[in-house]
């Protein structure tokens, strides 16, 4: 099934979704790709579309590639919106992280530029990460805001990196450039800007056959990341500057 779709619609393309064989390529297109309700709703629309296709093609190879444009993968939360919008974390952002973390096909983040705070969280929620080798940093900067982390967000970071890297990431707001990110196993592959999407596609194709497991693929992720999934259910948490 061929696929080319924009969300929320063609006149307001916050997210595009293109099908290339077994690959679903999701591109975030709002500049800094800061998370607010409208942007997350657009992302949900794209993920819904993928799962609708998968219902018809269960057992076939598939993988999701998520990327941005220009110098940002995602610069994190729209903080003012997040703080002032009731239910933003419970109904939108945390739900997005859980959905990507447990998505029932292989997922690859093609990190085209900066991935800060909530944007870094989105990249970490993917199974695999390819990072541009000449531009961009990975960083959790809550200590400099300063603000606490939701328990589920902290759990994802803790699960995805070694204790020392976790310490430096959270307590120092360390900025990981590409070479160090690879050394610390935060990413799987480095690539030039022109080769980034191609390398992400290669990785997606390499593991797309594992989607033949169907719903079991997502179930295995639920088991792998049970700590993060469970902590993500903590309700009524407020991301507020202390």
UniProtKB/TrEMBL annotation:
Keyword Membrane carried by entry: no
SUPFAM superfamilies named among the record's database cross-references: ClpP/crotonase
GO biological process, one term: fatty acid beta-oxidation
Keywords: Lipid metabolism
Entry's Gene Ontology molecular function annotations: delta(3)-delta(2)-enoyl-CoA isomerase activity
Gene3D superfamilies reported in the protein's UniProt record: 2-enoyl-CoA Hydratase, Chain A, domain 1
Catalytic function, reaction form: a (3Z)-enoyl-CoA = a 4-saturated (2E)-enoyl-CoA; a (3E)-enoyl-CoA = a 4-saturated (2E)-enoyl-CoA
Signal peptide: none
Cellular component aspect of the GO annotation: peroxisome
Pfam family, one: ECH_1
Keyword flag Protein transport: no
UniProt superkingdom: Eukaryota
InterPro entries associated with the record: ClpP/crotonase-like_dom_sf, Enoyl-CoA_hydra/iso
PANTHER family tied to this protein: ENOYL-COA HYDRATASE-RELATED (PTHR11941), ENOYL-COA HYDRATASE_ISOMERASE FAMILY PROTEIN (PTHR11941:SF75)
Protein name: ClpP/crotonase
